[in-house]
Amino acid sequence: MTTRLTFLGTGGGRHTTMYQTRCTGGMLLEHGGHVLHIDPGPGALVQMNRIRYDLGRTESVIVSHCHPDHCSDAPSVIEGMTHGGWERRGHLYGSATVMEGEGGLGPCISKYHLGLVAGHRTVRGGDVVDIDGMTAEVTEARHSDPTTVGFKFHTGDGIIGYTCDTEFTEGIAQQYRGCRVLVQNVTTPSGNRIDYHLCTDTAAEICRIARPELCVFVHLGIVMIRRGPAKEAGICEERSGVRTVAGEDLMVLDLAEDIVFGRAETYGSEWYPAWSP
Ligand SMILES: [Zn+2]
Ligand SMILES: [Zn+2]
Fold first, then answer.
1. Ligand 1 (ion): which residues have CB within 5 A?
2. Cα distance between residue 71 and residue 73, in whole Å
3. Closest listed ligand to the CA of 14
């Protein structure tokens, strides 16, 4: 059983999110027969329905920070994971703003929903957690929610890094050395550097330092989408020498010996047992 990453959404930022120019449902990471949902933002439920993924299979949820494009569908995903709230199961990992609230942000998960899961934990950069048998290093980010975290997931098929929403620093980039796949939240295109986010230029810097086998651009903002994410990924690849692709909604990566690209709609009930209407 290989490790599989399904991109429910590849949009990010306020305008992409509010008009759903791209979906913003986060990612499903299948590892060793377990499913982890990372950042269930707006559209996560719609996308899971579309690919007939039964969210009762989800065993853990991560909410990296308390911005709506990362957390809005989380309470419903928790209700799905706990089979309608009837079964205490699954684990939730979130930043301090997500879980407790801090500095005027959050919490975005109610005490009621925290009570549904089998376990929950507030995570900070530098923590190491075991998620259903997989070691996950919690990485640091520099974002407008100061408690934002990224991750390095140590799967049986290599390390998958997720920068989450962050701006560039040398130290942030170095955290992702050793990754096979690096998912970067690249909000804006080349020449459009903004505070607290990555643009194509800084994403290329991270690739030059971290040197993953493959980089995937997600969290695409509206200017990035207009500019052409595939072209921007090409700029990153040319500058860094790291193979870079622009994420697409419902794109799937299988981490076998090679990294194989697919589409979630084509997998059907073999991988995603039919949801009973
Ligand atoms: Zn975001
Ligand atoms: Zn954010």
1. 12, 67, 69, 165
2. 6
3. 1
Query: CA 201 to CA 205: how far, in whole Å?
Result: 6
Residue 208 CA to ligand 1 center (angstroms) comes to 23
Please report how many Cα atoms fall inside a 13 Å half-sphere around the Cα of residue 258, on the Cβ side: 4
What are 7-45's pLDDT values in tens digits? 999 999 999 999 999 999 999 999 999 999 999 999 999
Q: How many angstroms separate the alpha carbon of residue 39 from the centre of ligand 1?
A: 9
- pTM > 0.70: yes
Whether the bond into 107 is cis, omega within 30 of 0? yes
What is the side-by-side strand order in the sheet with 3-7?
Answer: 119-122, 91-94, 60-63, 34-38, 27-31, 3-7, 251-255, 259-263
Measured CA to CA, the distance from residue 137 to residue 265 in angstroms comes to: 31
Which tokens is 173 given?
């980039």
Checking 118-121 for CB contacts under 8 A at 24+ apart, the result is: 118/88, 118/89, 118/90, 118/91, 119/91, 119/92, 120/91, 120/92, 120/93, 120/94, 121/91, 121/92, 121/93, 121/94
Pull the structure tokens for residue 230. 């595939």
Token pair 């979906």 is found at: 23
Q: Examine the pLDDT at 235 and tell me if it is beyond 90.
A: yes
